[in-house]
Amino acid sequence: MKHYSAAVIPGDGIGPEVMEVGLSLLQSIADIHGGISFQTESFPWNCQYYREHGRMMPEDGLQRLRPFDVILLGAIGAPGVPDHISVWELILPIRRSFQQYVNLRPIKLLRGLESPLRYKQHDDLDFVVVRENTEGEYSNMGGRLHVGTPYELAVQNNVFTRYGIERIVRFSFELAKATGKTRLTAATKSNGINHSMPFWDEIVKEISSDYPDIETQLTHIDALSAFFVSRPESFDVVVASNLFGDILTDLGAAVVGGLGLAPSGNINPEKQYPSMFEPIHGSAPDIAGKGIANPIATLWSISMMLDHLGERELGKLVLDSIEDVLIAGEVRTPDIGGKATTRELGDAIREQLYRRGG
Ligand code: NAD
Ligand code: MN
Predict the structure, then answer these.
(1) What residue ranges do the domains of the chain occupy?
(2) How sure is the predictor about 139, in pLDDT bands with cuts at 50, 70 and 90?
């Protein structure tokens, strides 16, 4: 019997709604498999917790998460609490202190869905974005001066380290190699950003010489955004800095059906610390409480979590079950053209899981 432990942070808004479905799925997987179990513990760290305690998590929060194999996060953010507090005091400390330097975001059109890009088919939309997750544009350095005067200014420093760039770029090449892909595209902007980006480009080129079988391309972020729409079939692995990767993956999510479908893993490849899996969407205050959020992004994130734990067959079983339900087309949440609730779609996927696996 294998035991896995997961710390669960349902969060705010639709976070707890999609996480409820995620936890049922874990239970179903354990039922089907018999040889594995998940021990989960829920942590109520969210904006409500912030209102009550003046902080997003307790002082020893990170220490409490440390012993778990993995972390599952719903979504964080609520009207009335500034986003820079909810994100900077919960998600970013977890990503950074647990060295989750890889943010893995598949961009893949699932079977049964159509892309808003009219002429694109499934095979055209199947690549992965590797977002650097610990440094770059999301630095904590900078400041504001002359506040309240006409001369007020803000400076935000970008931080790019050789260590940080090398490890994310190398990871991306290794991922390409391991998955039999032949093309690596690195997002850049060295024509406009004249210190950090030329440094990034140099390191990409250095490392690419270790991978002669992989065709490496440096593409400016503005053009790259356009290519995500005009020729997505030309990508296998895309590696990008923190901000560029963040923006590119919401765009990527949109071309494969929307934010309700898009999963992610914040990964510590060395497995020295827990990795964290979460849908890339936020707490969606506009639909929170209605029970209509799409749970697929969360369930797919759990599929990625299973892959990370080495349970690849189970990860595939989850994704296959999701696709079965999409192909059947009967149970869909409103964001993908149906009338089903979060729970109904979750139940349909679990039924399919039992059918395939049980
Ligand atoms: P959002 O992702 O919450 O919502 C954007 C749009 O997508 C909304 O119209 C929403 O209804 C829709 N949407 C998102 N997830 C969906 C789902 N599962 N099913 C159906 N529709 C879905 O982004 P936002 O509105 O910019 O941000 C809302 C809050 O979430 C903010 O506080 C923001 O800071 C936070 N946020 C948190 C995370 C995170 O927890 N990692 C990520 C992004 C945004
Ligand atoms: Mn984002």
Answers:
(1) 1-100+265-358, 114-255
(2) confident
- ipTM reported for the complex, 2 dp: 0.98
Percentage above 90 pLDDT, the chain? 97
Helices (H), the chain: 15-33, 47-53, 61-65, 83-86, 92-97, 162-178, 196-208, 221-230, 242-255, 296-308, 312-328, 342-357
- Ligand 1 site: residues with CB under 6 angstroms? 14, 18, 75-77, 83, 87, 91, 259-260, 278, 281-287, 293-294, 297, 335
Tell me which residue has its CA closest to atom 11 in ligand 1: 284
Query: What fold, for 1-100+265-358?
Result: Isopropylmalate Dehydrogenase (3.40.718)
pLDDT at residue 166, rounded to an integer:
98
Mutate to test the pocket of ligand 1, among 92, 283, 332, 339 (most ligand atoms within 8 A of CB): 283
**pTM of full prediction above 0.90:** yes
Which residue has the CA at smallest separation from atom 38 of ligand 1?
282
CATH of 114-255, one of 3.40.1190.20, 3.30.420.480, 1.10.238.10, 3.40.718.10: 3.40.718.10
Q: Which residue's C-alpha comes closest to atom 23 of ligand 1? A: 282
State the number of CA atoms in the 13 A half-sphere of 160 facing the CB. Answer: 22
